[in-house]
Amino acid sequence: MARDVQPQRNSLYTALLPTLLILGALIIIALFVLWLSNNSSAQVSSADSGKLNAEVMQKFKTDYDQLGVAVGDADAPITIREFGDYQCPSCGAFEPTATRIRKELVASGKARFVFFDFPLAMHQHAQEAAVAARCAERQGKFWPYHEALYAKQSKWASLDDATPTFLDIAVESGVDTQKLKQCVAQDATLDSIQQNRDLGEKIGIRATPTIMVGSSVFSGGVSYERIKNLVAAQIASGE
């Protein structure tokens, strides 16, 4: 009987080997996912509405904000940031709130507003619109062009070729169409768009619009009143 013990053990080991290998692979995958999660939390820490950690906030102030298009006093107590996509319906719905932020909170000196491009691959014309808006910026006409893109989103979003509409928007916004056409044809501002998109991915942006009021992060639209109250609270707390 003793002679049968070793073969039985070998048979048992052979039978269990596939299961052990699968368990080992699952453990490795779980550890890798945990590592990725920890890396993400180093950029954006999750909370009720989301919260930027101190390291990322500092990077925005020293490096990241210069990648976006800003309006308002650089020394304003609170900076409101938006990562947006011109073809995103939710971004279009948020734009009246963003406009009000710029006209009231920014104009009063309570906040600064910075827009970052985050065109989604699912939207056919989003990148082209972003390139055109940054070309308009080169003529000092970013905000009029930006607002017109959103106001007319429903007219160009479903077109096969949105270029003629983008040129019409240029005329309405006081942009030199010939310069705009040349800038767009050369993809002269595409690198800026890519830098914005890379930044968004780096800090964990997953949807548009993503709104940041100081260190608080909101995925999707948020009301003007909530933003206004949050700005007041952060100013009062000295955040």
Annotation, overall tally of beta strands: 7
- Which structural class do you get from the secondary structure elements? alpha+beta
- At CATH level 2, the architecture of the largest domain is 3-Layer(aba) Sandwich
Task: Look at the structure and name the CATH superfamily of the largest domain.
Answer: Glutaredoxin
- If you average the pLDDT, what whole number results? 86
Q: Give the overall silhouette.
A: globular
Q: What is the CATH class designation of the largest domain?
A: Alpha Beta
Radius of gyration: 25 Å
Ends distance: 78 Å
Run of helices and strands:
HEEHEEHEHHHHHHEEH
Predict the CATH topology of the largest domain. Glutaredoxin
Which blocks of ≥5 consecutive residues have pLDDT under 50?
30-49
Query: How many strands, which pairing sense, and closed or not: the largest β-sheet?
Result: 5 strands, mixed
What oligomerization state is this entry in? single chain
Number of helix segments?
10
The share of residues in extended strands comes to 5-15%
- Helical proportion? 55-70%
Could you say how many structural domains there are in total?
2
Biggest sheet strand line-up = 3-5-4-6-7
